[in-house]
């Protein structure tokens, strides 16, 4: 039986009360945002902090969420044991808020085929190579949603990575799995926090602006469907006013 707090119920009702909620989903795994494959969750955490949005714990859905009614923006930080199970979080949220659609959805995720520091904003494109994205695509039955990819290197190209065969079984016999699960080395994590995450956050907000513009144009073309036409209140994080040392 799923337990709902008053805060959660308020969020669900607010999201459902207006069409076209914008959802930003930070791909990540259980218990840590320091591992390479949780760099998306790390970025959505940064967004929530600097947009002054407070997380609400939704334990029965293995996630945390936060909502801005002014911007009709829902941030999601999954906390599943494995990244490939993140789609279960999305599936449950859609059951509770069925107006969540692929057109206004953005996933922030790691990209092990990109060099560290490479950030790419895209709309649509292949997702099957990334277990965290493959499940999300399966839920929507389309790859046509926004993504911000964050390069984390590839184990074969990262000189800081030492392959260790762990004792948990043959699943760790490859290079990619332990590489993704392991924590960034300190020198890389500093670069990620000071440069990569803020840049990715700005790319997310640029995509949000594009989604808002598309919604406004759609509503203008169909005035009989006009329900919500609010403008995005904070188009970009001003990194000059953020203490990156914290």
The CATH topology name reads Rossmann fold
Proportion in helices: 25-40%
In total, how many domains does the architecture comprise? 1
Low-confidence stretches: 166-173, 226-239, 241-246
Number of helical segments with 4 or more residues: 6
Q: What is the CA-atom radius of gyration, in angstroms?
A: 18 Å
Largest sheet descriptor = 7 strands, mixed
Beta-strand content estimate: 15-25%
Mean pLDDT: 83
Strand order of the largest sheet: 2-3-4-1-5-7-6
How far is it from the N-terminal to the C-terminal residue, by CA?
39 Å
CATH architecture tag: 3-Layer(aba) Sandwich
Kindly provide the name of the CATH class. Alpha Beta
The secondary-structure element order is HEHEEEHEEHEHH
GO molecular function, one term: peptidyl-tRNA hydrolase activity
InterPro entries: Pept_tRNA_hydro, Pept_tRNA_hydro_sf
Can you describe this structure?
The protein has helices at 6-17, 39-50, 86-96, 131-140, 176-181, 186-221, and strands at residues 22-26, 56-58, 63-68, 73-78, 105-111, 119-123, 146-151. It has 246 residues and is an alpha/beta fold. It has a single domain, classed as Rossmann fold, CATH 3.40.50.1470. A 7-stranded mixed sheet has the order 2-3-4-1-5-7-6, with helices on both faces. Strand 2 and strand 3 form a beta hairpin. The protein is globular.
